[in-house]
Design a protein that fits this description.
Distance between the termini: 59 Å
Shape: globular
Strand content: 25-35%
Number of strands: 12
Mean pLDDT: 76
Largest sheet: 5 strands, antiparallel
Strand order of the largest sheet: 1-2-3-4-9
Helix content: 25-40%
Order of helices and strands: HEEEEEEEHHHHEEEEE
Number of domains: 1
Number of helices: 5
Length: about 200
């Protein structure tokens, strides 16, 4: 009986993998064929802590992922949910100046284009091209840039991927020690504990 229990196949637990790319420290985790990865961007904007995230659907099922599916679980048990993209864009339009947005977009692009492990099929680059086509290069405003970088609700068919910036409303100290928890499609992605603070 003991041997039967010991020799029975055990479920393989997904393991968080860490790597560096273009100066950013990423964590990535795959469950049921779906991969989620993130890194903190070294720019804070108007009270936000910003994470670059990417989601790739390597399964055969359709998954829908929202910014609100991302949460920061602090060591004391409190949870900070990511802000919906529309609220981020509205706040940037109200309070961010052109230099703030240029800094954030520049930082995001350095991380994104230096990341060779994820080739997004419908993420930031596609939204940026759409914004340029809609407003024209000369009229591209901070609003278009903000809406292009923000992670938006995405329906991912098999083989599709997306990326974007996830925003947490924080004070100057950042999110503090804790872990990123992502829940969608019946799956939970829990990343290793880190400290997310102000980097600029």
């Amino acid at each position: 009986m003991v041997c039967a229990l010991w020799c029975a196949p055990r479920p393989v637990l997904a393991q968080v993998i860490e790597f560096e790319s273009n100066g950013l420290k990423y964590q990535t985790l795959t469950r049921s064929g779906v991969t989620v990865m993130f890194a903190q961007l070294p720019s804070n904007l108007k009270g936000y802590t910003v994470l670059q995230v990417a989601v790739s659907n390597g399964s055969r099922y359709l998954y829908t992922v929202d910014p609100e599916d991302f949460a920061w679980q602090r060591q004391d048990g409190t949870v900070e949910k990511a802000i919906p993209a529309r609220q981020v864009v509205r706040r940037m339009l109200d309070k961010a100046n052109r230099d703030d947005v240029i800094k954030l977009v520049g930082t995001y692009e350095v991380g994104l284009y230096g990341l060779q492990r994820m080739q997004s099929t419908n993420g930031y680059e596609q939204r940026r091209q759409s914004a340029i086509g809609e407003f024209g290069q000369a009229r591209l405003k901070a609003a278009a840039a903000a809406s292009a970088i923000a992670f938006v609700r995405s329906k991912l068919q098999a083989g599709e991927s997306t990326d974007g910036a996830i925003f947490f409303l924080t004070d100057r100290k950042g999110l503090g020690p804790g872990r990123l928890v992502v829940r969608f499609g019946g799956e939970t992605f829990e990343f290793d504990a880190v400290t997310i603070g102000t980097m600029n």
